[in-house]
Amino acid sequence: MEISREKQFLKIIKFMPSIFVTIFSIFVILFLYFENKKTFDEEKKDIEEKYISKNKDIIKEEVNRVYLFIKHLQTNTEEELKNSVKSRVYEAHAIASSIYENYKDTKSKKEIFELIKVALDKIRFNDGRGYFFMDDINGNKLSHPVDKSIEGKNFINYTDARGYKLFQTIVNTIKDKTERFDEYYWYKPNTKGEVGRKISFYKYFEPLNIAIGTGEYFDDFERMIQKKALEYIRMIKFGKVGYIFVINYDGVYLSHIRKEYIGKNYNETLSLKDNKEIVLEMMNIAQEGGGFCTYIQNQKPGTNLATKKISYVQGLNDWKWLIGTGFYEDDVNSEIVEVKRKLDEKYETYVKNILLVGFILIIVLLIISRYVSIFLENKFNQYKKELDKKQTILHQQSKMAAMGEMIGNIAHQWRQPLSTITTASSGMVLQKEMGILTDEFFFEASKKINTSAQHLSKTIDDFRNFFSPNRLKSKFFLKNTFSTTLDLISAQFNAKEITIIKNIEDVELYSYENELIQALINIFNNSRDELLKKEDERFIFIDVYKNNKNEVNIILKDNAGGIKEEFLDKIFEPYFTTKHQSQGTGIGLYMTEEIITKHLNGTIVVRNKEFIYNDKKYIGAQFKIKLKLFDEDAN
After folding, report:
1. Quick one: CA dihedral 149, 153, 158, 160, positive or negative?
2. What is the secondary structure of 407-450 as a DSSP string?
3. How do beta strands 245-248 and 321-328 pair?
4. How far apart are the C-alpha atoms of 576 and 565, rounded to whole Å?
5. Burial class for 506, CB neighbours closer than 10 Å (0-12, 13-18, 19+)
6. Residue 115 sits in a domain of what CATH number?
7. In a domain, 370, yes or no
8. 240 and 159 in one domain?
9. pLDDT band at 332 (very low <50, low <70, confident <90, very high)
């Protein structure tokens, strides 16, 4: 059986690498072919989605860029407004200073003031909205070119629409001889009482002890900023026909590539006419932060054809603007067709290359595998020779160790029968010399001598059978096997007060009984050595029963405290022992595993087990052996 398996293994070493290389190479080639075919097909399928996704990213980025630009303008609107009114007041102050310096020696201050007033009254800025005003230290309005009716009136206690005394701030500016910004809510000119937030700047004019100022309504200035933003947006172009459109929340176009749309409601144009739902959807998306929308645009710029369009819109809620842009499906499709054509060409080249490389790879690997096979075969033969030598030594050591154990057991087994024979024969001789030997004592002593001699003979037979080199398989009952095993070791175990508790089913096996006995003795001896370290009760438990897999379970455990966790994985290694070198060789349990797994074709595992016996908790090592009931393949 061993020789046949070795031949099979050598054949595997010779041919398996070549077969494996061939199959593996073919598999790799086929895998690469089909996997890449699948990848190319998936890439072709995904290409439309990728291009749509790419274009979506582009339009989203364009809208975000515009959005961030406008946000930047909004953030700086108030600062820019302040800078604007301040610079205007500085211009007016420079004009007033120039007039004063020219006429201070020839005209009175009143005449100079009139000259300054005439000069400043004519100046307008910010699309005609901006003008300059002047006030004195008592709160009198000296100049107001837009509303002449309030000139000469005192406003020291006047409040704005929200109760703020703005003229008191002007008076304080004069008193402090300084300059400052102010903010208040004033009635807008040319409106029906509309109030607007106004930002002003006052500067003290020392020669006349007055303040010169100007202001601008924030919403008016913001509209100017919006106009600037729209001019910037109209200049933006990207791609073939990419542009940014702006619609306010009332549906009026503020910016579009078609200039004729600007200022018109979407219902008045042809691009989204009769698409009220689409516009409302875009409005909702924009107001909620932004997103994509797909729809049919009636007239595509450049073709005037109805075309599917995907747009990205974002809302500028404080200005009530919808900012958006999009791309047309037919533009993407033309790019997709070209990319698919290039992919097909690339795939054809790839298939040719992979077949060529695969063929060369198979040839090279077959040559390498042949050399590897020869090398492995030589190494295997060398290893087998070394292994045979080591196994022979180990078996010899195991037999010598077992023989030593058995000689000790024989000594224990023979001690009592020899003592009985010696006592009986000595008694017979003594009584004969004294002339008092009776027939009754003679026959009784002879019977004891005969019984003891038979016991000695049986012991010799048991040990001879155990050491018999015969390895023939036979049928045997495990009860008898354990009875023989325990007879061989019982003397030492009884002397050490080790109690063996048996629960053995009468199971019949077809295997090698002597080898099983050797394995069991090794386990029992190992338990004995551990139990001798205990001062209290010493138990070994034997459980034998059939399972439902045509197997018998043999479970041996003790209450010696178990095996250290770090030793559990090493317990079956050769020469591993936890005993002193003078007490153990470390091959007993190694040979036990060899016998169980290789000779009896079974399994053996060891673990620490907690259990309760006679209402007491114990812990110990548990060996679990599984053997086939009728295993024809056992060595």
Report:
1. positive
2. HHHHHHHHHHHHHHHHHHHHHHHHHHHHT---HHHHHHHHHHHH
3. antiparallel
4. 15
5. exposed
6. 3.30.450.20
7. no
8. no
9. low
Number of domains making up the chain: 3
Q: What span, in angstroms and rounded, lies between the C-alpha atoms of 48 and 70?
A: 33
H helix intervals, 235-328: 276-287
Q: Do β-strands 307-316 and 474-477 pair in parallel, antiparallel, or remain unpaired?
A: unpaired
Q: Do 277 and 173 share a structural domain?
A: no
CB-neighbour burial class of residue 473 (10 A; exposed 0-12, middle 13-18, buried 19+): middle
User: Who's near 596: CB < 8 A, 6+ residues apart?
Assistant: 519, 602, 603, 604, 625, 627
Closest CA to 451 of 490, 480, 424: 424
Per residue in 174-206, pLDDT (tens digit) is 999 999 999 998 877 777 778 888 899 999 999
Tell me the CA end-to-end span of the chain in Å, nearest whole number: 7
The per-residue pLDDT for 77 is 81
Looking at the fold, whether 148 and 282 belong to one and the same domain comes out as: no
Instruction: Identify the pLDDT of residue 493.
Output: 81
Report the 3 state secondary structure along 9-68.
Answer: HHHHHHHHHHHHHHHHHHHHHHHHHHHHHHHHHHHHHHHHHHHHHHHHHHHHHHHHHHHH
In terms of C-beta density within 10 A (0-12 exposed, 13-18 middle, 19 or more buried), how is residue 48 classed? middle
- H or E segment at 402? helix 329-434
The span from the CA of 66 to the CA of 310, in Å, is: 18
Structural domain boundaries, residue 175: 91-222
Claim to verify: residue 103 and residue 175 sit in the same structural domain: yes
- Residues 120-139 have a mean pLDDT of 91
Asked whether the beta carbons of 492 and 406 are under 8 A apart, the reply is: no
**Residue 627, phi then psi, degrees to nearest 5:** -130, 145
